[in-house]
Amino acid sequence: MQILDWQLLDAAGRHAALARPVAALQPRTLRQAQAIIDAVRGEGEAAVRRCALEFDGIEPAEFSVSAAEFAAARAALAPEQVAALQTAIANVDNFHRAGAPSALSLEVQPGVRCERLIRPIAAVGLYVPAGSAPLPSTVIMLAVPARIAGCAQRVLCTPPQRSGLAHAAVLVAAQLCGIEQVFKIGGAQAIAAMAYGCAGVPKVAKIFGPGNAWVTAAKQLVAADPAGAAFDLPAGPSEVLVIADDSARAEFVAADLLAQAEHDALSQALLITSSAALAAQVAEAVQQQMQHLSRLSILQRSVAGSRILIVPDLDTALAVADSYAPEHLIIQTRNPRALLERVQHAGSVFLGAWSPEPMGDYCSGTNHVLPTYGYARAYSGLSVQDFTRRMTVQELSAEGLRDLGPSASALARLEGLDAHAAAVELRLAALRRERAA
């Protein structure tokens, strides 16, 4: 990993040091995703089958997962694997249930009541990729908050394996989360099928879940179409930023960096440290540890795009991290919680030496669907709220309208909207007549 001294960099050098790998959606990717969407909308299941054969190398006999396939998947997993999934589901359920949005009713002034009601999104689509690594953990992160929110229809799409079957762990996780409708469809064609309804897949109102560039492009395209479906949040490749001082263990830091770097060649891992000695130790530990990992070819490319920045103090480290706005922020310092209050922009934060990032990926209880590529400046990680709609209600008594109506009338006329004003003033006049009578 390249080691840079932050104090020796000019403005351009600092910008380059925090630059992410280019992962913006290319025009060609958008065109290809749109072509797939158009084909699915125009040709239906035939287009989905053609895409499955072209992109997945397999055309399942049936896209819908049968009860027999669910049962076979359960039998394929060892008891300890099922137990691990159940533990993760329980923790994610506990955390997300506690943070579920609540209704609100308030009399803002006498005779004027405002309310906020919570309603689940009726139909949601959950996309679980299964490319270089199947992700049953993503099933949990999507399905559990959807269940808590009360979404009546929860549809899951995941690419088929070469066998024509969905990955067993993905199916078991889905079943444990109460998902009954699973379809062996991947890529942009899955997004199109969920957005418009096709190949037996019901139409949904909102689509959740990570994916490759074509999946991301398709989600954005269908969200821009009023007849399509909304999507969860913008995202790019996975990333982690570690803030560490001289108390941190180099082997722990190196392992944390590699844990994110193994996702994808475009994944990025950054270390910001006030210790030059630690920087050198971590760089060496990264090289040593990665030689023993199975995804070495991916790591070689992602580590080449990762960096270690030496800063004069932790104040500078926090400022640099806040500017970067990482998906995952790990703080390994003598007193990590003391720094937490000053963290403003991060998807998820991990405090201390005993809080490795994979705990959040799998089973601590928080959600691993997080904003990447700097979107943590404006977006939050997935929660129950994302699976709901908030609907407001207002109810005024005659007295409430009499007291507040003149303000509404004045504001309407200030904006030049006399029909708005009239809707209030007609009622105010009626109240005056009734009182006079």
Keywords:
single chain; 437 residues; alpha/beta; Rossmann fold; 3 domains; 6-stranded parallel beta sheet; 5-stranded parallel beta sheet; 17 helices; 14 strands; 46% helix; globular
Mind explaining what this structure looks like?
- With 437 residues, the chain is of the alpha/beta class.
- The protein folds into three domains: 27-233, Rossmann fold (3-Layer(aba) Sandwich); 236-380, Rossmann fold (3-Layer(aba) Sandwich), CATH 3.40.50.1980; 397-436, no CATH class.
- 46% of the residues lie in helices and 16% in strands.
- The protein has helices at residues 11-17, 27-43, 45-56, 67-76, 79-98, 136-149, 168-176, 187-196, 213-223, 250-261, 276-290, 296-304, 314-324, 337-340, 358-362, 398-414, 418-436; strands at residues 2-5, 104-109, 112-120, 123-127, 153-157, 181-183, 206-208, 230-231, 239-244, 268-273, 307-310, 328-332, 348-351, 388-396.
- A six-stranded parallel sheet has the order 1-11-10-9-12-13, with helices on both faces. A five-stranded parallel sheet has the order 6-5-4-7-8, sandwiched between helices. A three-stranded antiparallel sheet has the order 2-3-14.
- Helix 6 links the parallel strand 4 (123-127) and strand 5 (153-157).
- The N and C termini lie far apart (85 Å).
Set out the fold topology.
Elements: E1 2-5, H1 11-17, H2 27-43, H3 45-56, H4 67-76, H5 79-98, E2 104-109, E3 112-120, E4 123-127, H6 136-149, E5 153-157, H7 168-176, E6 181-183, H8 187-196, E7 206-208, H9 213-223, E8 230-231, E9 239-244, H10 250-261, E10 268-273, H11 276-290, H12 296-304, E11 307-310, H13 314-324, E12 328-332, H14 337-340, E13 348-351, H15 358-362, E14 388-396, H16 398-414, H17 418-436
Parallel strand pairs: 1-11, 4-5, 4-7, 5-6, 7-8, 9-10, 9-12, 10-11, 12-13
Antiparallel strand pairs: 2-3, 3-14
Helix pairs in contact: 2-3, 2-8, 2-9, 3-8, 4-7, 5-6, 5-7, 6-7, 8-9, 10-11, 16-17
